[in-house]
Structures are given as structure tokens and as C-alpha cells.
Structure to design on (821 residues):
């Protein structure tokens, strides 16, 4: 047994380099139930992060009553993340949406499906007739299933013909995709989670894996607890659990937020200077090396010390570890993707691997991480605006090929310019050219930057807002029509994690009330619009998830993300399987780019790349000249200062992010009592020296302001670097009296963030803003209610530890006890 709130990573199962990671099967059931009481176990995978942990849902009397990790799954070997152990309770929540809602005289009232869908399709048709396809926008998520994204992409790109389609993956891993496209010509992770089992150096760039991919971090902890542990390098301005591990097993570099490019360039500078470069690999498999070495000249460790405020000696030490590693694994996440110069910095991580020839070999992965469980599919299927199966919108042959798959005219597929990214979609809605916005599985009224502006855009009279959700979120409260969806456990489909592992997630129970799978709702929308192919047949030709999957397989034939060798049957029963999976690789593919061959040839690549400073797409002819044979592309980048800098008025850098116990806007984790109790309300983190300078103490009530708004929160004095504030972004307003906006004090971090994005990936910047902070009142010795087990651990006073008690017990079955049986 383990209290999974007090010990989120559970019991250690140490192993040595090259050994198989031991299994540990975690089970959590409703209080009073034993495994023998369960009627059936239904196969699925995690939906509350991108790790893709395989699990089974326990069903009793047609209700979900718990979960168990899947021992046979390659990803987790039986383990569960605390969010998965407890988060399923949200499915059973009494306040699920069970009927469609429609706005009548300003109020949302219950209605039937026919009325709701007639209103949605009717308004879309009117607008198509009057204003054309560009009056219609779609904004989806990284939390639906592959089958749903593919159907939505077909409707948007192939049927309606709008270029205004994006996913919240824009806020999440647009930079992961862009960095992979820039360096390797195509999205898709080179590495595999099994690289953890053999790596001797593991670098985590702006990635608090301990809190955000708990099971993957457990795998690293088990290596650290075994013989010959790897060296850990952590780049993060906060003292996260990852940084603490790096402190004892490697190096923690805590740069000023927004200076990642300088630090990366300094690391590369040292690799080149010390000859830690695989010249033969670079010569044979890459272009752009000479430009890089020229760019690096000035980026000495001393410059990094000056700009990033990281000791030059630490930079040298980290570079030596990276430069002399035999098997180097890197992972990158929001500390890079949502910070200043996102793509430019992330690409430098790829450059390290190219320079060191550390790709396509065991232990040598780059994980340009995902965050959401199904974000990879949003990107693959084209629900983020890209063309399905990594087709290149600026290559006419690719559009023609796609049109053939869909049996439509190529001219019907918009490809005259890059797809409209989300922040631009919001701008078009603001200025009135987009009149219809269909939002599914995301909560922009809490998750987008500058919320005051977003609320005013979404609540406009002239915008017809459709929201498809499972709860009445802050965004749903602003809608004209709300469509109640079925979710994970209540519908069947597949999804793909960051290391390309495809899992089947099966329906375990009926959805509540009249809630319907997102797939069924999209298909009905298409039919009501009368969308047709060239022969006058319905454009969407499937009516079941498996039908959609089979159609998707055809769409991927011959493309990098080839699914043709997969089927629901093949995915049933065992472990998830990594794409590409086809005739040549019937059991999937552990690592790609094994032979230094990339998907970067001009006629095959997904993208010709962009200018990292201006974001302008590279012209096809330019790309052909630069990279005629499809090698890896080394792209150099110079540092540019952030747009919003600290000043006398706003002297702090504000970063925002996550805590282990909550998922995003908490629509699910708030409804799981164990998780909510662990992190019940918003807090703000500040360093001990900044607090002492002001005479402030743990628990004082502070007001944080930027030119956009204010947030009031209790002070947690944590291990964050001086000059920086941290706010978790999980706390919106739906569970406060009053609903969708702040009544008195703001508490959503995005009241404060700015409208700005990376030029190449168009990912909004959530991690560099200038802020002021003042004290509203003293806390009277009462500490902030922030977790003690995570990056928010208090450093000045002793605070009762975060625990979960009996309700948070997870049963662990360790491999050794199993063998002993
Ligand atoms: N518990 C939990 N897990 C989750 C999620 C969740 O909501 N809760 N969400 C999932 C999703 S969608 C995502 S995208 C991932 C995100 O996972 P992560 O990226 O690991 O999480 P974040 O907290 O957003 O940011 C990571 C770190 O970036 C650091 N950082 C901020 N600014 C900078 C900078 O300028 N430079 C550097 N080097 N570091 C910086 C922060 O201090 C923070 O510790 O998590 C996934 N997993
Ligand atoms: N300040 C700041 N802002 C951030 C970030 C940050 O680090 N800092 N991180 C950004 C990142 S990386 C991300 S991924 C976003 C996340 O931002 P959001 O996507 O807005 O957050 P969620 O709470 O996950 O919203 C998902 C919604 O989908 C609903 N839902 C869940 N399952 C289903 C389903 O099966 N069908 C349907 N139709 N609906 C469903 C949920 O109830 C919820 O309302 O936030 C971004 N915003
Ligand atoms: Mo994300």
C-alpha cells in the first residue's frame, strides 16, 4: 500500500542500465471494494497527461469503480499516476452535462438534440451562404481520440474548406512539432521511453517531469536508485523535484526565465570548442553545421553567466557531461515551449543530438515532449490546421494526394497559406470576420492568455459559440449552444503518446443522460450540413470509431506515421504499439532515424521550415537548394531579449505552470476529492530572499499585477530563483460562486499573461511576463495551502506535509513479491 498523495512516485523498484524496468502493478478501487468484487476490467490508457500509461477500468454494476495499471504495457509496466488513480471519479460526478443547452433570452436552458443540432448546423449554413468558409472556425483539443480528430479535420479542411482550424495543442506542443519539423523535416519523436533504461546522461529542459509525467519520472528514479545511475541535468528556474535530483546526481542550471537560447548556445559552444562533435555523422547526415559554428562564436559560458545568471563553471560542467556522454537522452517541455524564443531554443536541443550523432540508437533519444494525452493525434490528423498524416500544405502533390484519399477536388482543401493559428483565430473573432466558433474539449476562458480580452471575445453577440464539453466550464457558460459529450471510459477510440505508442481505449460504461461521443456529434454535424464528396456521396463515410480508424489507416499509407499495420484487434489485449507500423514493421518501430535517414526529402517532408526570428515559411525552392537529399537541418539562432521586460513598476518575472495534483482547469481533478484536497486553492511562489527583503512571510495574502489584470493568492516561500514569481494556472472560476469570471479577486493566472507568441510555432508565451506584487494582508502564521511534496515545497517554515490518508491508498504489487508467490 502507498499513500499516493504523500508519495506520488510510489515504491522504488531499482534497476541497472540495460536491465528491464521491473513491473509494479498499481490498483485503486472505490473504498470497501476488493479486486474480486469487480465485474469486468476494460482496457484503456491514461487521459490526464501525455505519458500514455496503459490501464484497465474496473466496472461494477455498470459503473466505473476504479483503475489498475497494465502490467504488460511497454510504457508503464503496471504503474499509475496519482491523477489516473483518482481522476476517474470525475466521470461519475453528479454535475456532468446530460442534455444539450441552448441560449434563450440570455439564459442557457435545456433542450433536445434535434433542436440543438438544427441551431448549430443552421447557423453554420447561413454563414457559409452569406460570408463563405472563412467565417467559420474550429478550436479543438489534445484530449479527444484519433478517430474524432480525423473526422473533424475532414469536415473542416475537406468539407467546409476553412483554413481556421486549430487545437489547444497550439498552447501546448506546437513548438514540439515545429522543432521536429525544423530539424528533421517532419513531426514524430526519434526516441523511445526505453532510452531511459540505458542512457548515461539525461537532460530535462524546462520539463518538470516529476510532476507532469509521474510514471516516466518513476522510471528515472528507479535508475537513480540502481547501480550506475545516470547523470541528471535539469534546466529550470525553480527547485522542482527534477532539480533536486539533478542537485544530487548531476547539475541544476536555474536560468533567468526567457534566456534559454543563450544557455543552449553556450552548451553548443563548449561542445564545438572541446571537439565533442561526431564530425563524420554531421558530415554525412546534416546540413548547416558551418552556420552554427559561426553563430556560436560569442556564446561563451561567461556570456551565459551574464545573461542567464548561471555560473559559467556550471555551464562548463553540464557541457562536459553532455559532450562525453555515451548515451544521451533529452526531453524538452513547457519551460522552453512557452518561454521566449521557444522554437529557437528547442531546436538547439536537436542540434546537440545531431552534433553528437546521438539519434536512432538505444539510450539516445530526443523527446520533444507532448503534454496532453492525445496531442500527437491532433497534429497527425490535422485537427491543428496542418494537413493529415504529415502532408505538407505548401507541396501541391501532397494536397492532390489527400484530395484523392477524400475523393474531393484538391481546390476544396485550403492550402494557399499556412493554417490560421489560434491566437489569430481569436483576433478574427474579435474583429468580426469569424462569426461561428466550434470549441470542443478545451476551456479557453481559463487557459488562454489575457483572459479579460478572451472573455470579451467569446461573449460577443455576433459570435455564435458552440461548446462541446462534459461539464459546464467557464467557456461553456458563454456559449450559444452547449453539446454534452461522452468521454474516456464511455466511448471507444485510439490515441498516441509522445513516443509514438498507439493505445486502444475501450468503452466501459454508458455515458450519463443524453451525452454522446464527440465522434457521433461531429458526424451528425457533417450530415446536417450535407457535406459530400465528388460523386455526391456523404463526405464522412463512417459511423463507428473502428470505421474512422480504418479510413485513417488509408490516409497514412506511405506517410511517416504509417498506421496500416495496426487494427483494433491487434491493439486489444496486449501492450500499446509504436508507429510506423506497416508491412515492413508489423510490430511497430521502437526508434526512427536509426540509419541517419530522415523524412526530410523535399518531396516527402512535412514542412520546409520557417525563419526562426520572423516565422516566415521557407520557400520550396530555397529548401531544395539547402537540403536537396533530405538530411537533418542544423538551424542556428541568436538570442533576442524578451518583448516584455522587467521595469521599476513591474520588477518580477512571472512564470506559470502546473502542480502534480491538478490537470489544467481542474474540470476533472477538482471532482476527485483526494486530488482537490492536496492542492485546494491558488498560491504564489516567491524566493526566501525576496520575501525577507519585504518582510513578508509564508501565508501572507499577496496581489500580483501586470498591465492585463490581477490575481490574489497566498504566499508560498519556495526554492524558486530570486526575482521570479510562480503561479499555478489551474484555478479558474467555475467552482466559485458567480461562475465564469472573477467576482472580487482574480485567481486565474491567465488574468496576467500577455498576448504574444513564438514567431515560428505560434505558441503563446505563458512563461515570461513582467509583474508587480504587493501585500494585501498578513497571513497570521497560517501557511499557504500549497503541496509540500512538489516544487512548491516550503523552504522557510515547517508546514504539515501533504498527505492523502486511507482514501488515497494505492495497492502495489511489486515484481519480486509476484515472483515469490
Ligand atoms: N500534474 C499535471 N501533469 C500534467 C499536466 C497537468 O496539468 N498537471 N498537463 C499536461 C500537459 S498538457 C503539459 S503541456 C505538460 C507540461 O509539463 P511541464 O512542461 O513539465 O510543466 P510546466 O509546469 O508547465 O512547466 C515546466 C517548467 O518550466 C519551468 N520554466 C518556466 N520558465 C522557464 C524558462 O524560461 N526556462 C526554463 N528552462 N524553464 C522554465 C517552470 O519552472 C516549470 O517547472 O504536463 C502534462 N502533465
Ligand atoms: N498560464 C498558463 N496557461 C496555460 C498553460 C500554462 O502552463 N500556463 N498551459 C497551456 C497548455 S500546455 C494547455 S494543454 C492548455 C490546457 O487548457 P484547456 O484545454 O483549456 O484545459 P482543460 O481543463 O484540459 O480543458 C479541457 C476541457 O475539455 C473537457 N473535456 C474533457 N474530456 C472531454 C471529452 O472527452 N470530450 C469533450 N468534448 N470535452 C472533454 C473538460 O471538461 C474541459 O472543460 O492550457 C494552456 N494554458
Ligand atoms: Mo499542454
Amino acid at each position: 500500500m502507498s499513500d499516493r498523495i504523500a508519495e506520488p512516485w510510489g515504491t522504488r523498484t531499482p534497476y541497472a542500465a540495460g536491465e528491464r524496468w521491473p513491473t509494479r502493478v498499481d490498483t485503486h478501487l472505490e473504498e470497501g471494494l476488493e479486486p474480486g468484487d469487480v465485474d469486468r476490467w476494460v482496457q484503456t490508457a491514461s487521459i490526464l497527461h501525455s505519458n500514455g500509461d496503459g490501464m484497465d477500468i474496473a466496472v461494477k454494476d455498470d459503473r466505473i469503480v476504479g483503475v489498475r495499471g497494465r502490467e504488460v504495457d511497454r510504457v508503464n509496466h503496471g504503474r499509475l499516476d496519482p491523477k489516473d488513480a483518482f481522476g476517474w471519479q470525475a466521470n461519475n460526478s453528479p454535475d456532468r452535462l446530460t442534455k444539450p443547452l441552448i441560449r434563450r433570452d440570455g439564459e442557457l436552458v435545456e433542450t433536445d438534440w434535434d433542436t440543438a443540432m438544427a441551431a448549430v448546423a443552421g447557423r453554420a449554413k447561413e454563414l457559409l451562404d452569406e460570408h463563405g468558409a472563412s467565417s467559420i472556425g474550429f478550436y479543438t483539443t489534445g484530449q479527444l481520440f484519433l478517430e474524432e480528430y480525423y473526422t473533424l479535420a475532414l469536415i473542416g479542411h475537406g468539407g467546409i474548406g476553412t483554413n481556421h482550424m486549430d487545437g489547444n495543442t497550439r498552447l501546448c506542443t506546437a513548438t514540439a512539432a515545429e522543432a521536429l519539423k525544423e530539424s528533421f523535416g517532419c513531426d514524430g519523436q526519434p526516441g523511445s521511453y526505453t532510452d531511459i533504461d540505458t542512457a548515461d546522461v539525461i537532460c530535462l529542459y524546462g520539463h518538470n517531469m516529476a510532476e507532469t509525467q509521474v510514471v516516466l519520472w518513476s522510471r528515472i528514479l528507479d535508475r537513480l536508485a540502481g547501480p550506475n545511475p545516470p547523470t541528471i541535468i535539469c534546466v529550470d528556474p525553480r527547485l522542482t523535484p527534477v532539480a533536486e535530483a539533478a542537485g544530487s546526481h548531476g547539475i541544476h542550471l536555474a536560468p533567468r526565465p526567457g534566456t534559454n537560447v543563450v544557455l543552449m548556445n553556450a552548451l553548443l559552444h563548449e561542445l564545438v570548442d572541446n571537439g565533442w562533435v561526431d564530425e563524420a555523422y554531421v558530415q554525412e547526415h546534416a546540413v548547416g553545421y558551418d552556420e552554427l559554428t559561426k553563430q556560436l562564436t560569442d556564446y561563451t559560458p561567461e556570456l551565459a553567466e551574464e545573461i542567464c545568471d548561471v555560473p559559467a563553471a556550471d555551464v562548463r560542467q553540464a557541457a562536459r557531461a553532455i559532450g562525453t556522454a555515451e548515451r544521451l537522452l533529452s526531453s524538452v517541455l513547457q519551460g522552453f515551449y512557452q518561454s521566449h524564443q521557444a522554437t529557437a531554443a528547442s531546436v538547439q536541443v536537436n542540434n546537440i543530438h545531431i552534433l553528437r550523432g546521438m539519434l536512432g540508437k538505444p539510450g539516445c533519444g530526443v523527446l520533444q515532449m507532448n503534454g496532453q494525452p492525445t496531442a500527437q493525434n491532433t497534429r497527425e490528423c490535422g485537427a491543428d490546421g496542418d494537413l493529415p498524416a504529415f502532408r505538407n500544405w505548401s507541396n501541391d502533390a501532397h494536397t492532390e494526394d489527400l484530395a484523392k484519399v477524400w475523393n474531393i477536388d484538391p481546390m476544396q482543401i485550403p492550402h494557399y497559406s499556412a493554417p490560421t493559428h489560434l491566437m489569430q483565430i481569436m483576433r478574427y473573432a474579435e474583429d468580426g470576420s469569424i462569426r461561428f466558433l466550434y470549441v470542443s474539449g478545451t476551456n479557453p476562458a481559463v487557459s488562454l492568455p489575457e483572459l479579460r480580452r478572451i472573455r470579451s471575445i467569446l461573449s460577443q453577440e455576433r459570435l455564435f459559440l458552440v461548446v462541446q464539453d462534459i461539464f459546464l466550464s467557464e467557456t461553456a457558460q458563454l456559449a450559444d449552444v452547449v453539446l454534452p459529450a461522452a468521454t474516456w471510459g464511455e466511448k471507444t477510440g485510439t490515441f498516441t503518446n509522445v513516443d509514438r505508442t498507439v493505445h486502444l481505449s475501450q468503452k466501459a460504461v454508458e455515458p450519463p443522460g443524453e451525452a454522446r461521443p464527440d465522434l457521433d456529434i461531429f458526424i451528425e454535424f457533417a450530415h446536417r450540413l450535407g457535406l459530400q464528396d465528388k460523386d455526391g456521396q456523404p463526405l464522412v463515410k463512417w459511423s463507428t470509431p473502428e470505421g474512422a480508424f480504418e479510413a485513417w489507416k488509408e490516409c497514412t499509407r506511405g506517410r511517416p506515421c504509417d498506421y496500416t499495420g495496426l487494427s483494433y484487434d491487434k491493439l486489444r489485449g496486449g501492450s500499446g504499439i509504436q508507429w510506423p507500423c506497416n508491412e515492413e514493421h508489423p510490430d511497430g518501430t521502437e526508434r526512427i532515424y536509426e540509419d541517419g535517414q530522415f523524412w526530410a526529402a523535399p518531396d516527402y517532408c512535412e514542412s520546409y521550415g520557417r525563419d526562426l526570428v520572423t516565422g516566415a515559411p521557407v520557400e520550396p525552392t530555397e529548401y531544395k537548394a539547402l537540403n536537396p537529399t533530405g538530411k537533418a537541418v542544423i538551424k542556428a539562432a541568436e538570442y533576442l531579449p524578451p518583448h516584455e521586460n522587467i521595469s521599476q513598476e513591474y520588477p518580477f518575472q512571472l512564470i506559470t505552470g502546473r502542480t502534480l495534483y491538478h490537470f489544467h482547469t481542474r474540470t476533472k481533478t477538482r471532482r476527485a476529492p483526494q486530488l482537490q484536497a492536496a492542492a485546494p486553492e491558488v498560491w504564489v511562489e516567491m524566493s526566501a530572499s525576496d520575501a525577507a527583503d519585504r518582510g513578508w512571510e509564508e501565508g501572507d495574502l499577496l496581489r500580483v499585477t501586470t498591465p492585463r489584470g490581477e490575481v490574489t493568492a497566498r504566499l508560498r516561500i519556495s526554492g524558486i530563483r530570486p526575482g521570479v514569481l510562480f503561479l499555478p494556472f489551474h484555478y479558474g472560476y467555475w467552482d466559485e460562486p458567480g461562475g465564469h469570471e472573477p467576482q472580487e479577486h482574480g485567481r486565474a493566472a491567465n488574468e496576467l499573461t500577455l498576448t504574444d507568441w513564438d514567431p515560428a510555432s505560434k505558441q503563446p508565451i505563458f512563461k515570461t511576463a513582467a509583474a508587480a506584487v504587493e501585500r494585501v494582508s498578513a497571513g497570521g502564521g497560517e501557511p499557504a495551502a500549497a503541496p509540500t511534496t512538489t516544487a512548491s515545497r516550503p523552504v522557510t517554515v515547517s508546514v504539515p506535509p501533504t498527505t492523502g490518508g486511507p482514501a488515497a491508498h494505492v495497492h502495489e504489487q511489486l515484481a519480486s513479491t509476484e515472483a515469490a508467490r
User: Anything to note?
Assistant: The chain has four domains: 2-95, 101-172+374-596, 175-369+599-633, 652-807.
